[in-house]
Structure formats: C-alpha cells, structure tokens
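Appendix B, example 12.
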Amino acid sequence: MTIFYKYLSYIAHQEYLLTSPTFSLHDKPILLIDANSTSLQLLKRSMETLGGSNIAIAKDAAQAAKLCQASAFDIIISDLKLGNGPTGLQLLELLRVNNLIDVSTLFLLVSEELQRPPLMGKAEIQPDDYILKPFSPPTLSIRMAKAMGRRRQLKPIYAALADNDIKQAIISCKKEMDKTSRYRQFCSIILIELLWRLGDYKKALQFLTPLLNDQQLPWAVIAMARTQLYLQQFTDATETARSILDNRMVAPDAHEVLAQCLLRADQLSQACIEVKQAIDLAPHSIDRQYLGCEISQAAGDFEFAKQCCLQMLEQTRHSIHRSVGHLCNYIRAIVDQAEHCEDKSQADQLHQQALGQLQKEKQSDLVKSDSSFNYDTFTLLIKGRIEALQGQLNAAREALSAASPSDTASLSPHLIADSAILMDQLGAYDQLASLMNNVEMSQLEPLAKQRIEQIQEASAEVLSELEALLHDAKSAQQQGQYRSAYQHFKQALTLSPSSVNIQLAMVTLAIKMQSHLRQPDPDLNKDCYELNRQLQRLPKTEQQNKQWRQLYPQLKPYLP
C-alpha cells in the first residue's frame, strides 16, 4: 500500500531547502552499519568530522539488533546491502516492529545504487531519508538535520503509529496539515495510506479529488487510481492508471492497478503483461509478488508463478516476514509447473528440482525456525503429488496415508493445501470433505487459501453429493436399515473409490446382513470379495488397520 513513498523524501527535501538548519551531533549516540569495513570507517570519519563522538559500529543486521537491545541510539545510518543476512530495510522493520529503537530515533539508508529502491512496508517503517554514495560530510549533515527536524515535528504521528493507533495518527496528520506546515504534502501522503488501512476508501477519494482539481500531483494521481480500485470502480481506475502511463511516468503502481482491473475483467493475458512490468520496475514488494503469482497461475504462465514464489521466499528469508509458507508455495509452484508441462522430460526435470529443493531446505534455518511445521510430512505430500502425476497411484496413496493425521483438524495450516491437492488427485473425496469441513481459511496464507478455494469450487458438486450420501447412509444405519445404508455407502464409493473408511463401513454392514441370512447373498459375496481385494492393497492408517484386523476374521467365511 505504500508504493508512492519514494515521493516522501523528495517532498520533504524540497520543503527543507527553504530553511537553514542548525544541527549538532555532540553527545548524540550514533550507530553505523555497513558490511564493508572500508566504507564503515569512512562513514565513521565523516560523522566524527561533523562532531560525532559517541559512535558504535556494526557489520550486519544481527550485530546491530544486539547493540540496539543494549543501548539507545538517536541516529542510525545503515547501508542498504548488509551481506547475506537482512538488508538495511529489513533491519529497520525489525527494529521498529520489535520496539528496539525509540520513536524519535532517526534512521537513514545509504547505498551506491543509482536507483532508489522501491520502499515496501507501512509509513512507520520507512527510512527517514535515502542517501546516494558517495556523499560529503556537509551533505550528510544537511540531510540528517532535515530528517531530524521532520521526525521531531511529526513525532505525534509516529508515536500513534508505533502504538498501532491509526485513528489517532490520522487526527495528528490533520492537525499538522491545519498548521499550513511545510510538511503538509508529506502528511497528505501518510494520511491517504492510513485511510486505506482503515478501509475508509470514500474519505480517501474525497480528500484526493480537490487535490487533483488544483494540480496533477504524480503521487496523488497514483493514489487516486488505487483508491478507485479499492472502491471497485474498475473503469475509472483503469482510465486513471492509463493516464499515468500515457504521460510516460515510470510507475509500477499504475501497471499493478491495471493488472488488477484486467484480472477482474478476465483479460488474463493482458493482466499478466501489466503485472510483469510492475514487478520488473519494483520487485521488492511481497504483495506485488503475490499478485504476480495469482495472475500468472490464472493465465497459465506457471514458470512466472514459480519465479514470483521464489522471489517471495528469498525476499522474506531474513526478514520478520519469513515463513515456511513461502517455501511451501515455491515447491508447490514447481510441481504445479510440472503438472501442466506437456514435455515429459521437462516435467521430470521439474520433479527433480522440487525433490532437490526439499532436500536442500531440510536443515535450513527457515525450516528450523518453525517447530510446529512437520517438514517430513510436507515432503511426503510433495512426493505423493509427484508419484500421482507419474501414475504411481499406490505409492501416492501410501504417501497420503502416512501424511494424514487421524484428526484433520490438527493438520498444520502450511500442509492443508498440498493435502487437499493430493486428495483431489487420488479421488479421496471423503478425506477431502473432512478436511474442507475443518479448515480455517483465516489461518491460511493467501496462495494456499486461493488453492483451497479453487479445489472447493472444482469439487463442490462431488463433495455435496458425497456428503449427502454419507449422511443418509449413517442415518439409515442408526435406524437399523442396513440394506439401505449399504446401498448409500456403495453409491458413495463410486465418488470416492479409494476411500478406506467407506469400504470398512460396507464390510461392517455386509457382515451384519450376511449373519442374518439363512443362505449367504451371492451379490454380497461378490462385493465382499472385491472389498477384501481393495482393502488388502490400499494403504491404511493405524486406526484403519486395527479396524480391518478385527473385521477380517468375520468377513472370511463369506469369501470364495
């Protein structure tokens, strides 16, 4: 939602040029972070030249976080790239979210990259300024003074955001704007984002309309397009986004808005083109990568969907947003691509890629960070999916049986999507119905939720019919109407032919019915033979095996 934050620094800098700052570093505790020792020493000398004396240094995010836990800093200056760990942006988010630095602490980001990186995240976790290397001590002093003045002036806004009090932050924004402050435009941008976060899109529209009537501010036009999208005014949003691009503005936001509008119009190929352009221009956004995956999957571009999942995995691996869910998404995307691949050799390569990634990540810090996630179970499900795609159905059923808990309600949210996919592949609709009845959609991450919804939609008719048959079968059984119950179970088995539970229920009823007959029913005998044959080869859970061992001696007399 903060895709136009690159305007914040520019606006504040232009406003600040109207003033002459007085700024002293004397006795201010300062933290400098850079993975390059030479750059770190140069930065330290610059700060000493400006009067800094209380200076701490760190070479990576982990070291910086420890220093912030131990001491308070007024100013933190970090390089964007900090080696193989978290970036400077991710460090800032870590420090702000975990309250390791005070709301008044100044955080500046420096880099040698010519292009300012697209800043992702909320207003409260944006750097106070972004400075391009190399820079002189006087330039650094001016930029620090500017940023410090702004943070002090807007402290009530930042304090409310730190407390997650969005409504108070909005009130503070409006108060600052009423002062005709030089930060009015800066506050306007924050205000729009806060209204979005509250879901108050109509107020955002009301605020933006007069701004655009007076002058076509680039950030306001982009904000208007997104506001119209949130209000589901897709035609207006499309026109506004196109007007931005027609003016030859480099605006990934406009491409993203267009992509979402085209997605809702079911123009998938065009939506895919737009979201790819948005990601090419500004890839450092998890929400944008999610959108890219959603659109590319719908358009059948499974290679790009896989790349989006990989970007999400790597961008979050060292951040507070890291999750094994991103790893599950990536490996699932590899298998999805293989499933839709017409070339068998290429599909086999993708299968090997998925299996290789499973092995590579087994001992990774990411997997170890989530003790509630059973990686072995996830591996079984992925191998089961691959075996099913290769026609090895018995092996796939064994994998599903080994991976399935007796109570589907206890299944980890990260395992639900792949469990459902494998159940759907094998036609295990009784298990799928049980899983769907117990799944908490709110616990699922977006791509897993999307996949579950797709399976629900595709199998809705079968699941509904199966549920009705099983209900009728159990109801008839409770009333002692064994023949009727048996027929309902038999019909249910045609919908879910690999269901062990249904077949065990049929065996139980067949034994009851045969025991009450003077002569065994020949048709029931045939059914008993087929049920025995299936149950002997189908993989079973421990509980199912126990039930089968109890039933088999009673069934044996009715077998040929």
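DSSP finds 27 helices and five strands in the chain. The first strand starts at residue 30 and ends at 33.
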